[in-house]
Amino acid sequence: MTSEFGLIERYFVGRQPSRPDVVLAAGDDCALVEVPAGYQVAISTDSVVAGTHFLANADPAAIAHKALASNLSDLAAMGATPAWVSLALTLPNVDEAWLSRFCDAFFALADQHQLQLIGGDTTKGPLAITLTVQGLVPVGQALRRSGASVGDGIYVTGSLGEAKAGLDVILHPDQHRETEAQTLVDAHYFSEPRVAIGQALRGLASAAIDISDGLIADLGHILERSQCGAKINISQLPISASLAQFLRERSRALQYALTSGEEYELCFTAAADHDTAVMAIAQSLSVPITRIGEITQTGQIELHDDGAALDWQLTGFDHFKDENNE
Amino acid sequence: MTSEFGLIERYFVGRQPSRPDVVLAAGDDCALVEVPAGYQVAISTDSVVAGTHFLANADPAAIAHKALASNLSDLAAMGATPAWVSLALTLPNVDEAWLSRFCDAFFALADQHQLQLIGGDTTKGPLAITLTVQGLVPVGQALRRSGASVGDGIYVTGSLGEAKAGLDVILHPDQHRETEAQTLVDAHYFSEPRVAIGQALRGLASAAIDISDGLIADLGHILERSQCGAKINISQLPISASLAQFLRERSRALQYALTSGEEYELCFTAAADHDTAVMAIAQSLSVPITRIGEITQTGQIELHDDGAALDWQLTGFDHFKDENNE
What we know:
Chains A, B: Belongs to the thiamine-monophosphate kinase family. Chains A, B: Residues 150-304 form the PurM-like C-terminal domain. 2 copies of one chain form a homodimer. Chain A is α+β, with helices and mostly antiparallel strands. Chain A folds into 2 domains: 3-138, CATH 3.30.1330.10; 153-315, Phosphoribosyl-aminoimidazole Synthetase, Chain A, domain 2 (Alpha-Beta Complex), CATH 3.90.650.10. Helices cover 34% and strands 26% of the residues of chain A. Chain A is built from 10 helices and 13 strands. In chain A, strands 8-10-7-11-9-12-13 form a 7-stranded mixed sheet. In chain A, helix 2 runs parallel beside helix 3 (96-112) and helix 4 (162-171) crosses helix 5. Chains A and B meet through helix 1, strand 2, strand 3, helix 2 and strand 4 of A and helix 1, strand 2, strand 3, helix 2 and strand 4 of B. Strand 3 of chain A pairs antiparallel with strand 2 of chain B.
């Protein structure tokens, strides 16, 4: 009838097979879903805003992927299996080419994880996307930030630092000439949330978080909730050949690995006797998992370089940092 | 640690008693909730954006109430009992007075409905709020748009038209001199979602929707989903004394009642033999419910004035209407 609804219907409805637990998706005041017995629902909401999280002229496929990946990454960090997503899309105007590219990328990633779009809202205003994702996890098996114990190993998936280097390239187009530029930009926009690893870690990881604010900041959240400290060997940090080549200096690459936000890798802890099982997951899912340190009693993060102490002062990423330091 | 998290914690965490079905609220990658056996989950997402849904300098209490009321109204229209809400708040800067007023109004309305804030996201950018609310409804008892049958009565709760008149006052400050001005502005910002009525209508209403785009537009959604038409007697439309006084002409007041969006009253249908039970709900909950017409076969909405046909051409509210008419 009216174009707002026409807009939603044309681009978003009927693009996916319906999950059996979705009783009603778009087309009513609410969606209706069913939760199987023995499961809890994990819920996460994230917004990405033009000018804060991405440039307004960024590729809509990149925006869609990054917005959904960041939310799926939160489910991964809880060990939850993706189920449903609600999309609130605020657009300055109706641009069909933009919408079409946005939707193709959104549904490609959603379909890969059997995540069904169940509803949302389309409004006029400055470009922004808010997603609420929901996933299912067997009762009592969710991975939390609060379970780390002294002596547990600290692990990260994939490699670290590329998202920040990719942002450097995006913000300084002269760096596009570097050989690794496109690889790093793709790492910034098109990271793969570690959904399968998160689920495989149920019963093994003692604590988990996804790296959205930077390793130091996010590990800090685990330490805060678990009331413990950490010792990190920076020489173990997983750094890709592209990042090492792009940044040239080893210490810069390591600092990127420690502070790069929006990586959407997992950082988790596990007791020493689960180390073999953790490494078997890396093998079976073909994703690197690296032990980078150990949980301590101190309440702080101590960095060392194969035993040599370091005093780097590093913090994570914070949108409001400049104007309201605490 | 960083101010973004400080911000969230200080204003939002620990403000409400924890519901027994909330396993984990803020403080991890996801919230965790449990759904009781025999219930389905109703989910709705709505965004309100400065400049589109409210003026950027509007009272933050009004913005908070309106954003949450519009979402609760969607749960009401499904007959769902409110349970959990996620809040994505995008702010141009950290204004403590603004946040404090926003939160007070948000939690006042949430507490009234035992709705627990379970998580969200705070980001920097143009002022906007996206809420995802979730409610519980016994399996098979959700009120849908699709169940209206020929001969069913058409009902609305409360009175209609004040939200649009309130917006007139907000946009034209010279109208503030009118005696009814503040009543109408309050109706625009502080409407009460019909949550209790929605739940009471389970098993009675054949179809329901909340009036967010205007009666004509929203009744149109019921007719489309139910594949039927409607005959409305405009002389039955519930109009408040304040609205009648403010608009002076009867026909203008009626047109406001037919098209005013963001009313957050319910429009529903019920078989004739449920009419007494419907009126008993109005009595017991002390909210007016008015029968305004009847479902027909035509596929159209016919307006009449106590039998005299009308040919008013009226449409609902649509943010994108100006640039993309269909």
